[in-house]
Amino acid sequence: MIDLVIFGATGDLTRRKLLPALYQLEAAQKLPEGLRIIGVGRKLVEPGLFREQARESLEKFEGKIDPGVWDRLSGRIGYEASDYSVESLRAMSHRLAPSVLFYLALPPDVFPTVAANLGQAGLSKENGGFRRLVIEKPFGHDLASALELQNQLLQHWSESQILRIDHYLGKETVQNVLVFRFANAWLEPLWNNLHIAQVQITVAEEIGVEGRGEFYDKVGAVRDIVQNHMMQLLTLSALEPPPKIEADLLHNEKVKVLRSIRPLSRENLVQGQYVGYLEEAGLEFSSTETFAALKLYLDNWRWKGVPFYLRTGKKLARKHTEVALQFKGPPQRLFEDTDCNPEPGWLVLEVQPQEGMHIDVEVKTPGLQLSSRRTSLRASYRSKGLGELSAYATLILDALNGDRSLFLRFDEVEWAWRVLEPVLRPVDPPELYAPGSIGPNNQFSLLEDGHRWRKLG
Ligand SMILES: NC(=O)C1=CN([C@@H]2O[C@H](COP(=O)(O)OP(=O)(O)OC[C@H]3O[C@@H](n4cnc5c(N)ncnc54)[C@H](OP(=O)(O)O)[C@@H]3O)[C@@H](O)[C@H]2O)C=CC1
Ligand SMILES: O=C1O[C@H](COP(=O)(O)O)[C@@H](O)[C@H](O)[C@H]1O
């Protein structure tokens, strides 16, 4: 018997991501037999009402619900109220299965207390089963708090019990970055500073902060997206091939990339805030950034001199996540029209919502003249409906099965904070940008001569 205990079960993450993931796993018959899902929150809620609310969340965030799948899923779901004190957790411990996965879907400032109280209540001790702890992001608020959180966790939990989640690693198209790079040998000679002029990594969101203003305002785009999801996209795009696809060997390579990032200074970062953020977040004043763009360099053999541009923001023109590498141009352009001056082509890995890849190539312009035009070789990652489990579904299943390869090792988190530490305390207020736009104008100041931001989607 296994219990999945979700702390913070009335919250946004549970409703928006965890319940849909569990529904998908139930539909795919991937949940372990006998698994119970116990939602925990501070308020007293009748389990029946909690299930009703869970179903409403599924209808909102998952879409059409199959009654048979829901019946099976709801049969697993229970609810308990707890104030997360040692006494209350100890009382709960008697009702738990030998193997328990605790999921902290809670505001990050309560992670240390809840993790410690679980330990003091004896719930981190394994006795004939497993005890694992999933820690959501952000892991810490800066380098010092991340180190402190790690120390606090290690007082009651061993490293092998701690699963630091970054849901981007559960996305198929993020995992595909690695497969695409290392399963196609012809790419390798091109994937370096001899042939690549610049790399752009974009995580653009159409949504604003929605109901998460209180949380978001303490965090901002750098901590919410750059420190974790974008650093993962960066390391996967830039790392050296590990000797084998094994978790620790991959973590080693990712840390090497982070350690090779040239120390950042304020000039490497620009920030923006969308017009309407204050009203949406219910604030009178805030200098929190909802947009961040960075330029960084990796001082290593492969990437020396190639700028990596990272950009993320909320309330942008559209949702679009991609990793794009621009090739250097040919040494001499022989075939172009005298009037046209095409920029060198891109290789683009589309992460979401389109899932695919394309490579720009120049081909002959039809007609008598010998000139070139741009076209794209496109491939889609999968047909709709094929193997579609959400990132959270993949990661919850891995966590239940004890597969740690898609979870973060602490030094990855630590080095991501070390890299960003110099730019965490902004001096200038963020520049305002219009919702639905491409973000603030200051982002253009980062670009080197001849470079321009790619279109969003
Ligand atoms: N929402 C999202 O899309 C994503 C969230 N995350 C991470 O997941 C975690 C949870 O996020 P989210 O669900 O949005 O957060 P919420 O702000 O919605 O909080 C979750 C729940 O925590 C409980 N809670 C709030 N304050 C406290 C407190 N002081 N002590 C104990 N419990 C408290 C509340 O439940 P109750 O009042 O019932 O006890 C609340 O419903 C965060 O770490 C976030 O960074 C990561 C990726 C995406
Ligand atoms: O971790 C987070 O991610 C979501 C974006 O996730 P995606 O899978 O939709 O790309 C973001 O909205 C949220 O602010 C952040 O905390």
Search tags:
glucose metabolism, alpha/beta, glucose-6-phosphate dehydrogenase activity, 457 residues, Rossmann fold, binds the ligand O=C1O[C@H](COP(=O)(O)O)[C@@H](O)[C@H](O)[C@H]1O, G6P_DH_NAD-bd, nine-stranded mixed β-sheet, binds NADPH dihydro-nicotinamide-adenine-dinucleotide phosphate, G6P_DH
Summarize the topology.
Blueprint: E1 2-7, H1 12-27, E2 36-41, H2 47-61, H3 67-74, E3 77-81, H4 86-93, E4 99-104, H5 111-120, E5 131-135, H6 143-154, E6 162-164, H7 172-182, E7 196-204, H8 213-217, H9 220-238, H10 247-259, E8 269-274, H11 277-281, E9 291-296, E10 308-313, E11 320-327, E12 346-352, E13 356-364, E14 372-380, H12 391-401, H13 410-420, E15 431-433
Parallel strand pairs: 1-2, 1-4, 2-3, 4-5, 5-6, 7-10, 8-15
Antiparallel strand pairs: 7-11, 8-9, 9-10, 11-12, 12-13, 13-14
Helix pairs in contact: 1-2, 1-3, 1-12, 6-13, 9-10, 9-13, 10-13
The chain binds NADPH dihydro-nicotinamide-adenine-dinucleotide phosphate (NDP) and the ligand O=C1O[C@H](COP(=O)(O)O)[C@@H](O)[C@H](O)[C@H]1O.
Family: Belongs to the glucose-6-phosphate dehydrogenase family.
GO molecular function: glucose-6-phosphate dehydrogenase activity; NADP binding
InterPro entries: G6P_DH, G6P_DH_AS, G6P_DH_C, G6P_DH_NAD-bd, NAD(P)-bd_dom_sf
Protein architecture, described:
- With 457 residues, the protein is α/β, with parallel strands linked by helices.
- The chain has 2 domains: 2-165, Rossmann fold; 171-389 and 406-446, Dihydrodipicolinate Reductase, domain 2.
- The chain has 13 helices and 15 strands.
- Helix 1 links the parallel strand 1 (2-7) and strand 2 (36-41).
- Helix 1 crosses helix 12 (391-401) and helix 10 packs parallel to helix 13.
- The relative contact order is 0.14.
- The mean pLDDT is 95.
- Bound molecules: NADPH dihydro-nicotinamide-adenine-dinucleotide phosphate and the ligand O=C1O[C@H](COP(=O)(O)O)[C@@H](O)[C@H](O)[C@H]1O.
- The active site is at residue 229.
- Pathway: Carbohydrate degradation; pentose phosphate pathway; D-ribulose 5-phosphate from D-glucose 6-phosphate (oxidative stage): step 1/3.
